[in-house]
Amino acid sequence: MKNDIPIYDIQNLKAYKHDGIFVSRFGHYSKQHEHLHSAHRHTFFHLVFFTEGSGNQHIDFKEFDVKPGLIYFMIPGQVHSWSFDTEPDGYIINFSADYLSSFLLKPDYLETFSFFNGQPDSQVIELPAEVQHTITSIFEDILKEGQIEQPVNDDLVKTQLIRLFIEVARTNSATQKTNSYNHTLLKNFRNLIEKNYAQLRLPKQYAELLYITPNHLNALCNDFLGISAGALIRDRVVLEAKRLLINLDLRVSEIADKLNFADQSYFIKFFKKYEGITPEKFRKLNTTQNGN
What we know:
It comes from Pedobacter planticolens. Keywords: DNA-binding, Transcription, Transcription regulation. By secondary structure, the protein is of the alpha+beta class. The protein folds into 2 domains: 7-176, Regulatory protein AraC (Jelly Rolls, Sandwich), CATH 2.60.120; 180-286, Homeodomain-like (Arc Repressor Mutant, subunit A, Orthogonal Bundle), CATH 1.10.10. It contains 12 helices and 8 strands. Strands 1, 2, 3, 4, 5, 6, 7 and 8 form an 8-stranded mixed sheet that branches. The longest helix has 19 residues, at 129-147. It is globular.
């Protein structure tokens, strides 16, 4: 679609010795792919560690600073853009959804890291100085492995990548210490929302699927996230509405239909209630400012 938000596949960014992964210094990457500064999506996992630069970025329409020592992670499907005030540098790694699958016995391994949960506030992390040094060394080792003349040792690269995840996760260890049963419930609730947000809108519908009471589900969300179960469902619907509104080839009525609203009028009232502006106003603001 001519006016649709661009979606990039890992094959669009080949530069490493394996089709499933792309690794580069960020300064070079930023200059070579200036079209990626405006709003776009990926079909792959994506992470950037900034060592230089300033500005801001948007992840799923939430704004975050760009500054040295900051690392962020993204999962496939999220909407992203950058705006730099000073020239950035650092490291970037993109890897396909199945890049680690043959290496790990647990298919949901990445889900054990909070920064791969698809929630922007958990995905942007400012690293302590001592951790920055460790992370920089890991990135350099991965880059060196891609530069040697011999075929790249994928197991070594994958091991370094997993080590990077673990080192970053340790900086958030306090937030990881949750009751494992409740943590699993919350993860399963979020997974169910991701699959069913357009059809199921009520907490009691999800509680039934999780074999718990609506009150238990609501208490769980309030305790760990500070919001109700209903708000979590609603926020996912609003997010998808925003993603669809960036596609200028979709009429508002079509978006209302995709999200299973009874009619366009109800969708407009719903969106305005929670965003403070109409869908058309949101579309205008977010398609005339480099996508965000």
